[in-house]
Amino acid sequence: MPTQRRQRFVHGLLAWLLASALVLSLLNSVSYELFFVVSLIGLLIVTELTAPFNVTPRWRRRLKWPILVGIVGFAVIVVRRILEILPPEVLPW
């Protein structure tokens, strides 16, 4: 049973990644940052949709580290975009 749930998670995440790459390419909006953000959203959604109710398997507990790295990467992207938008006279350096 655990292998089936793990495969469902992997298949769901792969389907999300392929679909997001296809949609981004159809919209001519392919960029590393946008794909990263859409992939992080997909990881969070698939993680929540495939979560068991009672017991958390060990492999799911290890998902917190990639999620944490993804959130830190998202914060870096947001800060970079905000700094691009701000006029130069607002920045102290």
From TrEMBL:
The chain crosses the membrane at residues 9-28, 34-53, 65-83. Keywords: Membrane, Transmembrane, Transmembrane helix. The keyword Transmembrane helix applies. This is Uncharacterized protein. It comes from Natronoglomus mannanivorans.
